[in-house]
Design a protein that fits this description.
The protein has 351 residues and is an alpha/beta fold. The protein folds into 2 domains: 207 residues, Medium-chain alcohol dehydrogenases, catalytic domain (Quinone Oxidoreductase, Chain A, domain 1), CATH 3.90.180.10; 137 residues, Rossmann fold (3-Layer(aba) Sandwich), CATH 3.40.50. Helices cover 26% and strands 27% of the residues. The strands form 4 sheets. Strands 3, 7, 8, 9, 10, 17 and 18 form a 7-stranded mixed β-sheet that branches. The chain has a 6-stranded parallel β-sheet with strand order 13-12-11-14-15-16, sandwiched between helices. Strand 17, helix 11 and strand 18 form a beta-alpha-beta unit. The structure holds zinc ion (2 copies).
Length: 351
């Protein structure tokens, strides 16, 4: 099989030709149909996360070994299944749940593999979808996407699931409450696509890019704020008659956006931090107490949440976010575009 691998952090990806693996037991080998290019791929490629104040968290210290085939948003077609596989057969097309765990800890036993303390995430700790073939450790990680196009379905495994799980943490919301979505990139657009299945609350979308806000406007009835030209806190206060927002999901989550998010929260509000853009949030502790605030993080989501999401997308025929498909060769170029914020919606690669 031919894979595009990360051999050295920060250096161009390299083609590698290796023997195509033969699945054993519950393992499944799939031919890759489509693989989303995610912002996390960029962090892994760079080798670190910015923590704010010039501090960094290095990926190598978190157990990521090179060379590594990136890509964790993968749809593939089963070409061979191990002898114990019962749920899928050759020719079945499936979305891969990439947040693979050890299978034995309390998180893995309770549908929270994404919280496993010995994670084996695909495209992070084991080889992913920037390849023509991919080996999956267990058939349970394969999700039926019958009726969906591979290029539209692949990004539900990370961007879609992350957005969905973050939104669920803020529910329920009453119709007259206001929810704010910060960031109209891939994650934000996914959230906008599905939010109406969870609540009829008012939704405000904040971004710095008018083109992205326009894409947001086309997905639903959302009020948009360009935080480059307007103060987002003042504007949210104006739009909510001075009350502020009940729930905010921050898909950017840098110093500026998290500070603004904190300052626009109303009493009993919840703020869900999702983005990995670095920075530190400082706030007055008594405010958190007196306003009874919840500030929490949200990282990807569970396997059952991914199945739920796919059911919603299929049953409600949700409109896809803008997707553009490229040849796998373009991955390096696409990662640079992701870094510069030049992708509207999602870029997908196919071998
Ligand atoms: Zn585990
Ligand atoms: Zn991702």
């Amino acid at each position: 099989m031919k894979s595009l691998q990360l051999a050295e952090f920060g250096k161009p990806l390299q083609w590698a030709e290796t023997e195509t693996p033969v699945p054993k037991g519950k393992e499944v080998l799939l031919k890759v149909d489509a693989c989303g290019v995610c912002h996390s791929d960029l962090h892994i490629w760079e080798g670190y996360y910015e923590l704010g104040n010039d501090e960094r968290m290095y990926i190598a210290e978190r157990g990521v070994d090179l060379p590594l085939t990136l890509g964790h948003e993968v749809v593939g077609t089963v070409v061979q299944a191990g002898e114990d596989v019962t749920e899928v057969k050759k020719g079945d097309r499936r979305l891969i749940y990439p947040w693979v765990g050890c299978g034995e800890c309390k998180y893995c036993r309770t549908d929270r593999m994404h919280m496993c303390l010995s994670p084996g995430s695909i495209g992070v700790f084991q080889d992913g979808g920037y390849s023509d073939y991919i080996l999956i450790p267990h058939e349970q990680y394969l999700v039926d996407i019958d009726g969906l196009k591979p290029e539209n379905a692949c990004s539900y495994a990370c961007a879609g699931l992350t957005a969905y799980s973050a939104l669920k943490k803020m529910m329920p919301l009453e119709d007259d409450e206001t929810m704010v979505i910060v960031g109209a990139g891939g994650l934000g657009l996914m959230a906008m696509q599905v939010v109406r299945e969870l609540t009829s609350a008012k939704v405000i979308v904040i971004d710095v890019d008018n083109e992205k806000l326009k894409a947001a406007g086309e997905l639903g009835n959302f009020t948009t704020i360009n935080s480059k030209s307007e103060n987002p806190v003042d504007r949210v206060m104006e739009l909510t008659d001075g009350k502020g927002a009940s729930a905010i999901v921050d898909f950017v989550n840098n110093q500026a956006t998290s500070t603004a998010a904190f300052n626009m929260l109303q009493k009993n509000g919840i703020m869900v931090m999702v983005g990995l853009f670095g920075g530190k949030l400082t706030f007055s502790n008594p405010v958190a107490t007196l306003k009874n605030l919840t500030i929490r993080g949200s990282y990807t989501g569970g396997l059952s949440e991914l199945r739920e999401l796919i059911d919603i997308v299929r049953d409600k025929k949700l409109k896809s976010i803008p997707v553009k498909t490229y040849k796998l060769d373009a991955a390096d170029e696409l990662l640079k575009k992701v870094k510069n914020g030049e992708i509207t919606g999602r870029a997908v690669v196919a071998p």
